[in-house]
Amino acid sequence: MTKQLLLSLLSFAAVGTVTIRAQAPAAPAAAAPAYAVTSTFSAVSQYMFRGQRLGGPSWQPSVEVATGDFTAGLWSNLPFKDKVKDSSAPEFDLYGSYTFSVSKDLTIVPGFTFYVYPKAPTNAGYYRSTSEPSLAVNYTVAGVKLTPKYYYDVVLSGPTYELTAVYALPLKDLGTELDFTGQIGTYRVTEAANNTTPGVKAWGDYWQLGVAAPFQLTKESKLTVGFAYTEGRDAFIKQGSSPKGANSLAVGRGVVTISYSHAF
């Protein structure tokens, strides 16, 4: 999510009655900004998270700041239709990461995400906030970027394991590309519900296949259109010694996304 603006200045000088058309010494190139800011405004047809439908059609504005190898941002989800009953919307996620380069094809990225649900109904078992440190490895081979990633939710008390593959197919005649994404993941938490005794366990698997096409509108802005199908499978909840039950939020849905990004 970064872009930069460069300015150059040329000047001429005139001295006394004699005009000197000598070009002034070239000014040093402007230093690249110490940071870059990108704002994105997205609309999605469904809000799906790890194979669970957490909302209907939603706005998802975000802002991200990058400086060197460090990135931080704020992402949000604001449903405007078909809100899921007793859901914890709206949602605000503060995230950050640092990239360590091992080689041109290999990076290691520790990070964190802090999830905030200011209107979450705690009396219905929801949390007002949770947090996840994470560790990812990015490895590119034959043009395919592979990213295994590990998360651990310190509030829900459990890990998520995820593998993502991304491949970009250039479409030079159209001035864009097709970004194909595939993802599989699994999670297991032991404190899925707030203020509940005995504790509630939740576990399940999910997968996603998607494609997106970015269109550069100006040097600073672009429009991206995408579609993905994602599904939650073998998802269950269990409290204490009670029998396990199916997680009703785990479903399969197609998601259309339209995003506009602008870099400052």
Q: In a few lines, what is going on in this structure?
A:
The chain has a single domain (36-263), classed as monomeric porin ompg (Porin), CATH 2.40.160.
List key phrases describing it.
globular; mainly beta; 264 residues; 12-stranded antiparallel beta barrel; two-stranded antiparallel ribbon; Porin; 0% helix; single chain; disordered N terminus
Describe it.
This protein is mainly beta. It has one domain (36-263): monomeric porin ompg (Porin), CATH 2.40.160.40. The chain has no helices and 16 strands. The chain has strands spanning 36-44, 47-49, 52-55, 58-67, 70-79, 91-98, 100-103, 106-116, 129-141, 144-153, 158-171, 176-189, 200-216, 221-239, 245-246, 252-263. A hairpin with a 2-residue loop joins strand 4 (58-67) and strand 5. It starts with 35 loop residues before the first strand and ends with a strand.
